[in-house]
Amino acid sequence: MTEQRIGTDEWVEQHEARLATQSELRELVYGFGEQLPLWGRLGLLLLIGLFVPVLTSNPFHIRIAATIALMATLGVGLNVVVGYAGLLDLGFVAFYGIGAYAYAYLSSDFTGVHLPTLLTIPLITVLGAVVGFLLGLPSLRLVGDYLAIVTLAFGQIFVQLMTSLTRVDLSWVPFLTTDGPVNLTRGPNGIIELDSISIFGFVADTLTENYIIRLVVLILVLLFVHHLNNSRLGRAWRAMREDELAAEAMGMPTRLLKLQAFAIGAAIAALAGTLFAAEQKAVFPANFDVTLLITLYGVVVLGGLGSLPGVLLGAVIMIAVPEILRDIELASLLFYVGSVVALIGLIKPRRLVGLLLLNVAIIGLLVQVIAESIWPDSLAELPSVASVFPEFSVSIRFVTAIIDSLPEIVTSIVRNWLAIPVGNQELIGNIALAILIVLILIASRIKQTTQLLITLVPTMYLLALVWEIRLSGQESVTRLIFVGVVLIVLMIYRPHGLLGTQRIEIV
Amino acid sequence: MSAQLELKHINKNFGGLRVINDLSFVAQPGQITSLIGPNGAGKTTLLNLISGIYQPDDGDILFDGVSIVGLEPHEITQRGIARTFQTLRLFLNMSIIENVMSASFSRAQMNLIDIVFRTPRFRREEQRLRNEAEEKLGFFGSRLVGYRFDQPAYSLSYANRRRLEIARAMMTNPKILLLDEPAAGMNPNETLEVTALIGQLRDEAGYTIILIEHDMSVVGGISDHVIVLDHGEKIAEGDFEDVVTDERVVEAYLGRKSS
User: Fold this and answer.
1) pTM given for the model
2) Class of domain B5-80+174-254
3) Which of residues 42-71 of B touch A (CB under 8 A)?
4) Which of A40, A504, B127, B233 could disulfide-link to A36, CB 3.0 to 4.6 Å?
């Protein structure tokens, strides 16, 4: 018996069609994921994660993977508070710091306490939950922006305290004999020489061992949060996020639910802090500043609030992309590919993109010819494309060599195509940048396709010129600008995050 | 027959504005008590007072003889008074079945250990609640069942959203249902259907119902008892026929006859 669909009016149909086209990426990931049971998905993640140290022995790569695992764990915790319960908590990093400092106090020569890891980890996790619960209490009456401000202040207070609690008068404490002020945190110098994690005699000294521990913890935390989300607790959190008053009126104790969300998020953060401190073998107040908070929100928002696979993807992008961009040629390749992809998204019908790129190529050659004939010897001499091309041979080695030197080849082709002046690169670059910005502003106002295409030809040329002579040289600045631009573009086209569900708010 | 819900001399002010003025009434179990009155008469405020969203300045509200003044809204709901909203307040980005299941929060017998380790008790409890939610949704015919269970609530049409809100309120296992304009924004056919449905809720499900409605065809068709409010005061009470012919009621709705 086929069930007739009732209640699908035109609007619903249109909306569903929109959803279907917008969520291709989501469908791709979820379509694959849904065929696997939960343990299968987590097992796959573990397998992929374990493969990293097999594939590469480069400590730099393993460090990136370890950072991703840690940030993903933190992101999952933040996702409980922000994504499910809808509480804008900007003090989240403080719980991470509390976990790290608690580990420092419980396993270092600074206090002389050396508890076994199997004791410290549950202890610190519970401590995180308790502190989260206590911080939640004064925040109960606050919503939205006000909660954000209060929690932000809490995060700042934590960093300040850890920096400045260096001369504390403890003489008022009974049963404690101290001579003079006590240094509680060693200030910006941090607490150093912490113990490594050791479980049943296994001591995690190396980075790889720590990475595997982080991976296992990440998977356990994912399992935990996934189960929470698919229970009465998760339903109530999401109901509260949607409409707090309605949730309360439907019998959900919203105050208690908020406290629980705070506590669980804080417990996960404290656990992550433990792993961080144990690997770094030291804690400093600067580890827990606003930069980390912003990155963390980047992870959660980029992936899509409320989506666990989204947090993983967000962590990979937010951590790996800035690292990849340290390589100038790779960054250049990404820049050009990104520009072309943006064009494909911008121009419809799409076959016009080919026409546009052809025109840009011709313009580039024309500019070079004209510049050479008017001002001879004004253009920089560059190594030819052939010089970076790998030696030809009929073997698999040739293919891998091509792939390896692809960024170099592309950069070389573009640099040979552009008319790059010999001197005054900085001045010319700045002027070109100014013109470029004006052109982009003009292009963004044009609706008619032909006019847009005509404007885009010089825009694309200048874009490449500015990148080559002005931006690509200043790697440290460009990297951040690049990440920022990627985020802006992503959030414009997918405001609900990469794997998030588009949220509808219509009364 | 003892009263299921009794309001005693309720007063409520917003700033200097007196919204509810020394109001008393009783709702008998298994009956439909309708609150009518012009816009701004204080009907929705009264519902907010009963469901604990507002606190009365003065007076007492007794539910089965016990005062519920000062309790939090979720505590009142857990005791057995559920409501719907005039302006729909669904959990729009959750699925239909989740909307309904979420309202069983306080009845779900599971603790954190059950949830995390997916114990047999957890599975049993989830299954029980899901069956119950499906049963409540089944009350509305085939509109909210089957493939619809896992669709997001925002995909529903307006009338179906109203139905879903009633189903969600039913899921809290209430004794009293407070319905705030359940027929608002519905076409004549749907209004007829809602009227029949409210009758069913009383006769088959056995709820005591307090109904706010502007549509007189709904009120007249099913009310056991009608209370007319104007400017926060009760101006008439009784059967629908008695009430609508009352001089003060006609005056409140239509104004004073010029002599």
Assistant:
1) 0.83
2) alpha beta
3) 51, 53
4) A40
